[in-house]
Amino acid sequence: MQFKGLALVASALMFAACGGGSDVAPAGDATPAPAADAAAAPATPAVAGVPATGTVHEVKMLGDDKGYRFEPANLTIKQGDAVKFVALSGFPHNVAFDAGTLSADVKAAINDALGAARMGDLQSNMYMNPNEGFTMSFSNIPPGTYSINCTPHLAMNMRGVITVQ
Ligand SMILES: [Cu+2]
Question: If both were cysteines, with which of 31, 56, 97, 145 could 122 make a disulfide (CB 3.0 to 4.6 Å apart)?
Fold first, then answer.
């Protein structure tokens, strides 16, 4: 924010320093960026989906004398599979996807897939009791590598990776 402000000030100063050249188009002629069109885009899914395979993989969310962890911490699935996250010990746990370099479309697909289990952007609800959790379909999540973590135990390195093939 601060850099942007400085840059604007700097470019305004440079513009002024150029000495009122009239070959620059007046501000009134500037055409607005087509942001409104993008915002009004139809609600069709931007991420290509595949039919569900019916395969559900279980990832346990654990905390005990071996530490806080997803088990397995590294999981490879096919697009169309689902993952059931279940909290078993060491509560509370959640599942938060790292935004990283994910595109806006992929983030939207993850939020959609979290569905009723979504508590915030790219984050599931918090689970406090044994056997609580949720099942998430990866039908609309494109192939790629997705890093997840548990917000309450991020400092204890409770992290995982889900690879979608
Ligand atoms: Cu946790």
Answer: 97
The torsion defined by the Cα of 14, 18, 23 and 27, in degrees rounded to 10, comes to 40
DSSP annotation of 36 reads H
Which domains are assigned to the chain?
A: 56-164 (2.60.40.420)
Residue 76 near residue 144, CB atoms below 8 Å: no
Task: Report the candidate in 73, 78, 59, 75 with the shortest Cα–Cα distance to residue 139.
Answer: 78
Tell me how far the alpha carbon of residue 15 lies from the centroid of ligand 1, in angstroms.
53
Encode pLDDT of 66-111 as tens digits: 999 999 999 999 999 999 999 999 999 999 999 999 999 999 999 9
Distance 114 CA to ligand 1 centre (A): 17
Whether residue 72 is preceded by a cis peptide bond, meaning omega within 30 degrees of 0, is yes
Cis, peptide link before residue 143, omega less than 30° from 0: no
Task: Report pTM.
Answer: 0.73
Q: 79 — phi, psi (to 5°)? A: -60, 130
Backbone angles phi, psi at 135, to 5 degrees: -115, 130
Q: What's the 73 CA to ligand 1 centre distance in angstroms?
A: 12
